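To assess whether ligand presence alters the predicted conformation, the chain was also submitted together with iron/sulfur cluster. Input:
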Amino acid sequence: MTENYKFNPNQKCEYFPCHKGVEKEDFNCLFCYCPLYLLGEECGGNYSYHDGLKDCSGCTKPHDSDSYDFVMSKMHLIFRRND
Ligand code: SF4
């Protein structure tokens, strides 16, 4: 069984690749806007803070080859917040 739904590169995007640190052939655009942002410090990514704002520019978690499984592993935290 294929798992193509987990990987959606968009190499025609004007901003591709929008983050450094992931090989172009492994770059997943499925989570262009990271759904884990709202988890704050629980997201598990490599964020920093600048002027009090969470800065994700150094994080490749939503774009690397394991991004689908990583994001899905955290989705229960988002659902828990909305209970
Ligand atoms: S991009 Fe990285 S640091 Fe930012 S919310 Fe997503 S996982 Fe966390």
